[in-house]
Model the fold of this input.
Amino acid sequence: MLYFPDGNTAYDGQWVKDMFEGYGRLYNNDISSMSSVDYKDLGERWLKYEGDFKQNKKEGFGTITFSNGEFYTGGFKEDKAHGQGELHTKTREVIKARWNNNKIV
Done:
């Protein structure tokens, strides 16, 4: 496990050669609160990522939860939402789309 200086968990998961590799959970200790997610550009205001990693980056399939409780589940490439995915909003709307570099294409 990896911890933030305040003792909160930063990463809990698999490691290879001191890098996040395989399945894990990554927490963001420096988040801004938000009222809603711009579904056209997911941005960086996330609270937790749970899923696949490759060489310290979100890569493969995972779920990212935002500070307002909304979440995206789907593909990731080099730390960004990429490929097929779904954004689940607070109003229970599910936006199914293809993403590239955190943006709907």
Observations:
- Strands lie at 2-3, 9-16, 19-27, 46-54, 57-66, 71-77, 80-88, 94-100, 103-104.
- The longest strand covers residues 57-66.
